[in-house]
Specification:
Elements lengths: L5 E3 L14 E6 L9 E4 L4 E8 L6 E9 L5 E5 L1 E4 L2 E6 L5 E11 L1 H9 L5 H21 L2 H19 L5 H8 L2 H9 L7 E2 L4 E6 L1 H4 L3 E3 L15 H13 L4 E4 L47 H13 L3 E4 L10 H5 L15 E3 L2 E3 L3
Length: about 350
């Protein structure tokens, strides 16, 4: 069920006097206690559980608070006690982005008073309790806007008059004190001066639905040519889009599409000696034509790639690119930024290896 959110601006709470009685023992989910962000899908409920309690029999109120990072105010929804000090609530991030959520809890004097009054049967106790409730109502009126304040003050006066009137039956006075509409008004203006809040809260990343689940088709663009012996291009891939989409895929994944190094280029079946027509491994990134910001000329231009991306969208697909943080020996960065690389005693760049495997081209 959807829950209405109310905006709230948080401010630091002084607790030097030790009256911060609510304990927030845990908030879930939380990745390494908030060191890393939890994840969800935008537009879907994000459920939060908090373990909150206090000493004694007083009643707690607990709020789940959340905001999009950069916003000045928090929105909040009430948390519901499920069992064994476990409180539950959810909110729905409206759009992809980074968010923050936290929990605020406090001992609620009005809720505690009302809970105890409901169990009272002695007439004298009910009359005294009504006067205590009148005091709570007057205090809440100081925090409420004019319309609610007027209603609360009127209710407080009625409780005081009823408690002082011996002719009013205690059951009638008790019913007046337990009025649901006035309780709802009281709940809108609680005393949070000694609330416990976990600051700065927990980070959350809301992704789009396709980040949670999608169906990927991997394709080497250079192999997309319909003609044997001709290097494929982005235009060739574009002609295959209807067929790939018809199979039910919504993401088309490419290995690196950058220029491929020529130094130490591997041949067919990982041969150390490459032939003149060997195209090399696309993961051996970088050559005289450029590096990670450039496209292998045989595949096409940046504009050709943009056109392919747009055409894929027309078929309900997106393009995913392999991000490989590695370089061929003749990548421009090797010369431009030598301190980025490890150098061997013979003056060559250390290639990648996982003994006995050797990747001399990377």
């Amino acid at each position: 069920m959807a829950q209405a959110a109310k905006l709230l601006t948080l401010s630091p709470i002084g607790v030097a006097d030790g009256r911060q009685r609510a304990v927030i023992d845990a908030v879930l989910p939380g990745v390494d206690n908030g060191r890393f962000a939890a994840k969800c899908v935008a537009g879907e409920p994000f459920h939060v559980e908090a373990h909150c309690f206090c000493e004694g029999h007083d009643m707690l109120r607990v709020m789940l608070q959340w905001q999009r990072e950069g916003d000045a105010a928090f929105a909040e929804v009430p948390m519901t006690l499920k069992w064994n000090d476990e409180w539950h609530a959810h909110f729905t991030p409206p759009a992809p982005g980074r968010y923050r959520y936290t929990v605020q809890a406090w001992v609620d004097a009005f809720s505690s008073w009302r809970h105890e009054l409901a169990r009272r049967v002695d007439a004298a106790d009910i009359r005294i309790a009504a006067r205590v409730g009148a005091g709570e109502a007057r205090a809440a009126a100081q925090r409420a806007p004019a319309a609610d304040a007027q209603a609360l003050l009127g209710w407080a006066a009625a409780l005081e008059d009823g408690a002082a009137d011996p002719s009013m039956d205690s059951s009638v006075l008790k019913a007046l004190a337990l009025d649901d509409a006035m309780a709802e008004t009281m709940h809108r203006w609680p005393d949070r001066s000694h609330a416990t809040v976990l600051a700065p809260g927990f980070p959350l990343v809301a992704d789009r639905e396709r980040a949670r689940y999608s169906t990927w088709y991997e394709l080497f663009p250079r192999s997309a040519s319909p003609e044997a012996g001709r290097h494929g291009s982005f235009d060739d891939v574009q002609k295959l889009l209807p067929q790939i989409a018809q199979m039910g895929f919504d993401v088309l994944y490419f290995p690196p599409i950058h220029p491929i190094g020529r130094q130490q280029r591997k041949g067919k079946n990982n041969a150390l000696a490459a032939q003149e027509d060997d195209v090399g491994s696309p993961w051996a990134i970088g050559a005289i034509e450029g590096g990670h910001k450039d496209i292998l000329p045989a595949l096409g231009t940046h504009e050709d790639f943009r056109r392919l991306v747009q055409a894929a969208r027309g078929h309900g697909m997106e393009i995913a690119l392999d991000i490989a943080f590695q370089c061929a020996p003749d990548h421009p960065w090797v010369e431009q930024h030598p301190l980025w690389f490890k150098w061997r005693p013979d003056g060559t760049v250390q290639y990648a290896e996982n003994p006995p495997k050797k990747y001399q081209d990377i």
